Amino acid sequence: MNILKQAKFFWTSIVLAIVFSVIMQFLITGGTLNQFYVNTLFFIGINIILATSLHLIIGITGQFSIGHAGFLAVGAYASAIMTMKLGLPFPVAILVGGLAAAVAGLIIGIPTLRLKGDYLAIATLGFGEIVRIVFLNIDYVGGASGMTVSHLTTWPWLVACVVLTVVVIANFTNSTHGRACISIRENEIAADAMGINTTFYKVTAFAIGAFFAGIAGALYAHNFYIIQPTNFGFLKSFDILIFVVLGGLGSMSGAVIAAILLTIISTYLSSYPEVRMVIYSLVLITMMLFRPQGLLGTREITSFFKAGKTAKGGVQHDDKKTVA
Amino acid sequence: MTTKKQLLKVENAGIRFGGLKAVSDVNLELKQGELVGLIGPNGAGKTTFFNLLTGVYVPTEGSISLDGEKLNGQAPYKITKKGISRTFQNIRLFSELSVLDNVKVAYHSLAKHSMLSSIFRLPSHFSGEKEMEEKAIEFLKIFNLEKSMHEKAKNLPYGQQRRLEIARALAANPKLLLLDEPAAGMNPQETEELMNLIALIRERFSLTILLIEHDMLLVMGVCERIYVLDHGQLIADGTPEQIRNNPKVIEAYLGEEVS
Questions:
Q1: What's the pTM?
Q2: Percent of chain B having pLDDT more than 90?
Q3: Contact between A190 and B88 using a beta-carbon 8 Å cutoff
Q4: Residues B152, B191: one domain?
Q5: Which of A197, A215, B76, B238 is 20 to 30 A from B259, alpha carbon to alpha carbon?
Q6: CB of B177 within 8 Å of any CB in chain A?
Q7: What is the 3-state secondary structure (H, E, C) of B35-46?
Q8: So where are chain A's domains?
């Protein structure tokens, strides 16, 4: 019965997403939305992919990784090489971008996931910087001056990728494999003792997260006409991290909502460059003071609609949890 | 009784951390269906010994085998799959997960559906998850926890958290269950309920149980045989009656008599 409900909810969401995207497509092609809004919309889509992919690594598996921009960069450059240098079609470039980032995720994940907490954070931060420096020094991809990429990211591709990311990560999370990852976050020793192959699941979550970050990279590269190594510095990693933390660690809908809100805020603030970072920081500080567990805590947005069920489940003790 | 099969065999097992011999030269045998106690003063190495059995530590000497298969050096999750499951001295539940999900996690290694089937929501995902849920609820019913199955594990009262930990360990389908101080922090009534519960699960799942306990009433009451560990070495083994009168054991617990 529960499962049937789940399936129904799933298909309703998919249909709603398609209806929404078709309407938006008409608004974009009809010229009702001006270019500024369209750009913001594309930004939001890319950031949703980044936020949900990092959510899987940090929020679900509990591995504190802050080198996500590294995977974004790998995906962006790999896909740009596919379209610009090799002349392959865009869908292939998206796939290659994702796969290249996933391979990078495996290479970095297998040795570093033995580390815990702060050490893992430092190692992944280092990884992000290494990726940036490497691209900075490869002349084939333009070095510091960057690489020009044609604008190929279209609304349907963006929506398809966002939906795919959200569906895959949600389905993964709501299965025994996702529970295995959550059990690692909750208590790694106990997870191990309960027969969970912790290394396998940590690396898998890392690779899936990296894959989607790479897809976001492909969309990103083909949206901005030019990619430069400076776009993928550690500040970009922190931007993504903030989506996840602000949305509530462990809540995918929280990460999505935070990605949408923060993208809108920072886009609007770009008209006031002097005070932009000040206001942005103030928003974050206020948020952390009044709601340290993030927008949704560990809950999902759907749980707010099942009022009867949660009431039965007893009082929700949303412990104030902060990171680092 | 003599026909009972040998399940666990530990030969001269030990571990040293640098120059410290935490456990050494332990020889221990468990037969199928036995309920055996492991006691000893604080710091005797009981939990370290459990960690050796479950693969958290790799023994530096000796061998451990289950059903004739050597376990030395295997990863903890593999040992769990082979049939040794445990609870912890300080409760280690997945506190943000629901009671039901805690049990489901333990059932994970027996799941039949693959990761891809879950991601693409193939029929095998639904049947697999359904089977898991049914099994998990079945376990919770035995432990009288089905009423609170949707609560977060951390919101359960202490005694129920201990019971949930045992339920979770059982869901991993073990042949040998290791209980690390299951009665710690329980009042006499809860301890008695626990004793009944242990007897019940042992019969129902035809389990072999090795338990560490400080509550002598419980140990002497339920265990058929008892091993005594002190300073990392076995100093005695035998029936509760023999242990109670063993001078070495009395010495380890109470000190030497002044002459």
A1: 0.89
A2: 50
A3: yes
A4: no
A5: B238
A6: no
A7: EEEEECCCCCCH
A8: 20-305
Phi, psi (5° rounding) for residue B86?
-145, 165
CATH 1.10.10 fits A20-305, yes or no: no
Residues B256 and B178 in one domain: yes
Distance from CA of residue A120 to its chain's centroid?
A: 18
Residues of B in contact with A2 (CB under 8 A): 133
Closest B-chain CA to A179: B105
Q: Which of A52, A176, A202 to mutate to test the interface with B (most CBs of B within 10 A)?
A: A176
- Do B159 and B118 sit in the same domain of this protein? yes
The answer to whether the Cβ–Cβ distance between A191 and B54 falls below 8 Å is: no
Strands B35-39 and B225-230: parallel
Burial class of residue B177 in the structure, from the number of CB atoms within 10 Å of its CB (0-12 exposed, 13-18 middle, 19+ buried): buried
Give the CA count within 13 Å in the CB-facing half-sphere of B61: 13
- Cross-chain Cβ contact B120/A186 below 8 Å: no
Per the listing, tokens 């005070």 go with A275
Contact B151, B98 (CB under 8 A): yes
Q: Is the dihedral of CA B72, B74, B76, B81 positive or negative?
A: negative
pLDDT band at B190 (very low <50, low <70, confident <90, very high): confident
Q: Is the pLDDT of residue B154 over 80?
A: yes
Structure tokens at A1: 């019965």
Choose the final residue of a domain: B124, B139, B168: B168
For B164, the domain range is 93-168
**Residues B157 and B217 both lie in one domain:** no
Predicted confidence at residue B257, as pLDDT, reads 65
Neighbours of A278 (CB within 10 A): 11
> Long-range contacts for B71-80 (Cβ within 8 Å, ≥24 apart)?
B75/A192, B75/A197, B76/A192, B76/A193, B77/A192, B77/A194, B77/A195, B77/A196, B77/A197, B77/A198, B77/B109, B79/B53, B79/B54, B79/B55, B80/A192, B80/A193, B80/A194, B80/A195, B80/B54, B80/B109, B80/B172, B80/B174
Distance from CA of A21 to the nearest CA of B (A): 22
ipTM of the complex: 0.89
Predicted pLDDT of residue B42:
87
Whether the Cβ atoms of residue A236 and residue A72 lie closer than 8 Å to each other: yes
Tell me the average pLDDT of chain B: 89
Please tell me the total count of domains within chain B: 2
State yes or no: pLDDT of A309 exceeds 60. Answer: no
Structural domain contains residue B251 = yes
Residue B227: CATH number of its domain: 3.40.50.300
